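Note to self: user wants both folds in one dump. Writing first protein now.
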Amino acid sequence: MASISWYILLLLLSGQFYTTSGTNGVHDNTDCCHWEGVGCDTATGHVTSLNLTRLGLYSHGIDQALFNLTSVQLLDLSMNDFGGSQLPAVGFVRLSSLTNLNPHNSQLLNLSSSGFSGQIPISIGKLTNLVSLDLSNQYVYDNNGISTNRLLLWEPSFKTLVRNFSKMRELYLNGVNISSSGKEWCTALGKYIPCIRVLSLENCGLYGSIHPSFSSLCSLEVINLRRNTISGAFPQYFADFLNLSVLMLLELDLNGQFPQKILELKHLTTLELSGNANLMVPVHSLPKGSSLETLALDGTNLSIAKPSSFGNLRFLHALHLDARIISKELSSSLSTLDSLEELLVLLNESFLSWIGNLKNLVLLTLEYGDFSRTSKSWIGKLANLEALVILNSIFSGWIPPEIGNFKNLRILSLHNCSLSGKIPAWIADLKHLSYVNLSTNNLSASPLCRGSTYTIIFSSGALKIAVLDLSENQLSGHIARSFWQLQTLNTLDLSSNNFSGLLELNTLLRLRKLSALSLSDNKLAFLDVEVNNTLLPVLSKLNQLYLSSCLFSLKHIQMLDLSSNQIQGTVPEWFWKTWSHSLTYMNLSHNNFSSLELSSHFLPNKQKIPVPGHPINRQLPDYSNNIFSSIPENFSYLTQTVYLSFARNKLSGQLPDTICKARMLEVLDLSYNNFSGQIPPCLIEDVHLGILNLRDNSFEGKLSFVIKDQCTLQTIDLNGNKIEGTMPELLSNCSELELSSLHVLVLRSNHWSHIFTSLQIIDLASNNLSGVLCPKWFDGLTVMMTKHDTDKVVRGEHLSRGSYQNIVLITYKGMYMAFEKICTTLTVIDFSDNCFRGRIPDTIGKLVSLHVLNLAHNGFDGKIPNQIGGMTDLESLDLSSNQHSGEIPQELTNLTFLGTLNLSSNQLVGRIPESHQFGTFQSTSFEGNEGLCGAPLPKQCKSSEAPSEPNESKPSKQIDFILYLFSGAGFGIGFAAAVLTKW
């Protein structure tokens, strides 16, 4: 029985999860070791496993309480829904039983298909004794068929994640955006996980050829590299992987010749090569006793020398082939395969009668066929068929009636098959149907209209259809109310037809499981009838709604969000004529709008930027991420606007002073444009702005020094402009810019002569700062002196109607990267590209939680402080292009999480350290130091070679005044540039 402490912990943890029934399934009065998915040690009562896979749980993220389960050796949260939350930056290392190797159990972490997003944290890489890791992600496809990966593995990189996984035997990262070249990921696997048995990296953004270092992974049993942009010659050494059972290389760009020996591997059960058009696959003969269960060779340059040998595949369940190679001899062999359940054939002719002999076929997929002149009677022989998919083919007339014989049919897809006529009534007899796709045909009549016999087809209570797609047909008439009785519907697409009439929106409330609805491009009008608020949550699963042609009939819109689409052209004038008296929130961001259709009644001079207005509304227009090219000179129409964003457009010229007539404005975001001239003084002097974001423009001159006592500024971002001079001292009147709540200082690429301190991220790169660094200054950076064991995110700036989340762009591991959520664990100092000189103070070693230190391109000299070796959280260290001398401190080898090191272009001497991380760095990290020797440099060290003593410089007294300015400023500037709308 579990102890009371484990009981309380699991009880707290269970409260973070919800099921579709609204309960968490916990029985408070029972032993927690008997709860579903919980396993305990019988001797100690400690919880040793937590397996919650496929329980239909929902949560807003992983709670820190989970990491108190320190005895857990198996943690499986897969196939649940964590709502797109990010994985915690820290906490995983506290799962000590996943870190300490137990010879009797396999350490396993499975977070796959659970809706996580964002960067995979480095803390998972610290679980050094993991045997199995599955972070596979369900990537989604947009309207253009392009997949989007939610999880990222950039910083840390793939190499950084796996470098401590020497015990790993199974690695699944399907759908994780790794974006790595073949040399990088192959070399990392060969070096750090040489005994891996299962490798699954499907759709990970891998590119380039498979590096020869992959040949060292001779223990591999499963290789899944499907749907990457891998190219180059097929690796012949795959035939030497004697334990190989699964080889999936679908939709790559491999060339050369596939080795016949792979087909002779006795353990091979799955071979997928589909979509490698330049790969020659000569099948001389298939061995008797072959274990093959899945064989996919369609879309390759396949040749078959002995078709009869296909009869040896007695265990074959799935076969994908091109019809061009199916001869009568081959079809005769295939028709004897009694075990065949899945068949995909890409057609260019109609020799298909042999398929009727496959009595056990469950799934049949045919593409690019012409059925208009041939008999389709063979279809009716497939009595056990559960899925029929015929795509991009040609039929003549109605849907083949033979399909009505498939009483077990679950999936019916006849997309783009030139079908015409009515939808047949016999579909209502297919009681197991869950997926129906009849899109892109010429089906007519009115299968859904009121009074039609076809209403019975889709409103039958016996049908359990989850997905119904009838888009792009000629269906017409009214949509009957009885149609909405299909309460199992998850996806419904009726777009691009001729439906008309009035549709009451409350009828949608019956579709409790609906997650995607498209009624676009019809002639529908909508009636919004007041409904009981208790019914509204039933549409909580709806995440895709397409009603593009239906907006015109909605007369009282208050909030309109059309963001993140590909809408282009002109914003129509009827937007403003119809909604000018009701609209309070409008988001047209992330589109391709270029102009606005407006009469002088709504905006003088027909300007190109839409500025709707009405004195009774507090408006929140977002026009960011479009291609608008000019800005209105008269902003008097913005008198009730509290939030205004023109970010990331093509705006230029001077910003008119009339912007200050927007007296209610709390957020102004004009970032990433090409504005020039001086910033209007009124923006700082006398408006009620909370956030002013002018990042990456060409503003110049000095800031206003007249700031009122009631300054409300919380955030200013002037990054990437040409502002000069000192910061106004009266910024201290801005009480919301208190130092205690300031986490980020970004003054990059300006010409500031004053500096500020005590921050979590300090970016003073590319200024004209000079002098030497005082040792006492680092003593004040207390935030960077404490190890943080929390993934708390720095708060956004809160306004009266919403919030604005910080984002900062910094140089991180040699790349210019954006951090949308700044965790308290991320600490950065970037003084690069300035004129600092003298020695780096030893006190910098006190900053033990610092992650990034960049002092490159300055005039620092003397020895590199040994104390840097104690900053064990460092992931990136750049001291390049200075005048450092002496040897590289051996203590730097203690930086085991260092992913990027650059000591190039200095005056360093002696042997390069070889242990720990130093063995992973390239020669570019050390080039430009004539006195250095040893790997990875080509210069060999002499056994008697001794390093020369560095010439130390004395610090200048000038710094006392400059550093007084460092520590004497009682205010600062935080920077934020991306909107987190909570209006």
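First done. Writing the second protein, which came from a different request thread.
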Amino acid sequence: MAVKHIKADQIKITVSIKEGTEGVKPETLFPGQERVEKAFNIGLSTEKEGYNIYVAGPDGIGKVTYSLHKIKQVSKKKKTPEDICYYNNFEEPYRPKYLLLPAGYGKKLSRDLDRSIDTLKEAVVKQFESKEFEDERVKLIKEAEEKRKSILEQLKKEAESYGLALVITPAGIQFLPIVQGKVSPEFLKIPEIKSEFEKKVELFDETFRKYLRELREIDHTLIDSLNELKKKVSEYIVENVFYRIEEKYRDIKQALRFIRYIKEKIAERIDLFIRWKILEGDFFLQRTVEREFNLFRLNVIVDNSKTEGAPYKYEEIPTFKTVFGHIAYKAEMGILYADHMSITAGSLLKVRGGYLLLRAVDILKNPFLWEALKRSILHKKVYISQHPVEEVFPFQVGIFPEPVPFDVTIILVGDNRLYNILSVYDYEFNRLFKVKAEFDPVIKLTDKVIESFPKIVKKIITEEGMKDLTADALSQLIKYSIQLSGNRKKINVIFSHINDIIREADSTSDGNLITGDDIKRTIKEKIFRENLIEEKIRELFKEGILIIDIEGKKVGQVNGLTVYDLGSFRFGKPSRITASSYIGEKGIISIEREVELSGPIYDKGVLILSGYIGSRYGKDTPLTLSCSITFEQSYGEVEGDSASAAELIAVLSSIGDIQIRQDLAITGSIDQHGNIQPVGGIKEKIEGFYKVCKVIGLTGRQGVIVPSRNFDNIILDDDVLESIGKGDFHIYTVDHIDDVIQIVSEMKPLEFHQKVKEELVQFYEKVSKGKK
């Protein structure tokens, strides 16, 4: 056990930087994040299922900057992925198929294909209008006509043998009766002739059908021959046009397979090119046909011709369309339609074979997007389709492109709270994001860190075009970062805080450089903008509305210290803790707990007081004690156990009727053995009490008692350090409650405890006598 009276030199931050940022080379990464470094090395090098990365840490610490830096390093060493294309599926037009080609070949093949189609527009008509084609077509027709003529001649002779005349009309072959060598339809008006005629037709019917079948066979054979001729010519034309392109891509199997597929489909639909030529001059109708040429075109949705290594992207505003791509529907006669040329790639396809960086909160704001992303990772496929809400739209002819194989490492950036929520409530999350890269907002203040600080600042001012900083300005900035860490041996590396100070100093600085005074002024102005409530509370203390004793001695009253957290600003405030003890059996009664204004940690602290008092004073004499304690003028919820040491002093003072110094404030939690444990908010608590004492009046005896284990957390502003240096304000560190007793009661601990014990014995004796 030891009481230490702290001097200003012991707690002053002595870190300083010798040179300004002029001439310093900017640096992206800050040392001290080895855990993150190792996590990224594993996540980016392990190409196995689920090895995606969740980057955890507070906003402003540089998660995105670091992630992009690491991705950029790794991506250079990786192979450039394929181009991604879509083409029409003639068998199932609503299901376009994808085609993967070596980087840069997608655009080349698409251009070559377009040129070939343009060539075919002229070549097809030219070939079908050629003398050779016409001669062959006429030859086939003549051959068929000769065969037809021969069969008709035979049919005519056969019919005449039955007394029937063969008549060819536009409606087909008909028969009329032959009467006395004459043929006329008028004969059919005579019943006897008509009856005889019908009998002859019936007898001749089977023979007629035989000839009719032969005629039809000739017609079918002609059609087949003409179609075959057309097919051969079409294939010949297409083959000639596509010869060069086929040779060009012969070593790329998937390209060659696609070219042969398209050749076949173009040859089957050669009439489209003929129609296009026929409609030449009619812009509207020709354009309608022109659209149909899209059936043969290649849609390159991802072009990696200019990509070096693996692609990567930070999707700043992720939506369903930007991440997964979309289908651009077109309206025609009240119906929305699309084809394979309407497909647009999203980030997952643009960075296929690489890395996609996303902010977790942006993804989770859209549950459809989060679920779709997980589905792609799990199934290893990227589906391009409508947003789930759009799928119910009735007036559209939808397409469902073949999903492209998923090959992307996802880097999700968020905070620890979100990571914990996903880990607990989303059973798939840990399976999909096996690597956690967690940034430490507070790191050790090493020589390497101090050396890197100017380089990081240089990067900040270079990116935003701000003025350089002097050595003193850098020293003030690093001191500010140390203050934010809450520990003199550490530094806060949430760079957004530093950025804001530099920006404000840059805009208000009159010189060519940002000086130390500029930084000091900026920090003070920032505090001034945010500390209105703190000032109002100090005014209430000064006016006596909030009651506080900062000199003299009192029984059962101690100055405790609390911290108010307003989000962007924290400050400390002293509170009177009072205790009132009397004979009873209720033990320690917390008024806050009784009225449900206390939290569980505070209640635990009160119960620990009971444990200490019972252990210290009740081993040989039963305790007949009731003692109420409270935070005076406190009307909100009280939480935390950092005032338990102060509460214990108030309780013991009340029991023993012992005077306690009011010019001291106490912070620190206590265990059941009386050891003083470290607490948070040391800076705010000390400065809060100092400012109240200053506004009411410093006496030279006021001060704060803090746990010795919080020594490194004592980081104070210059005016407080100055007062400590002059002896106007004091800080004491303690290890045990007896150290506190020695300071606040100005008694020896044994003497103090003896007096408390005597009072408790008297309580018991009075109760014992009353029972008799």
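Dump finished. Worth passing along: The mean pLDDT is 88.
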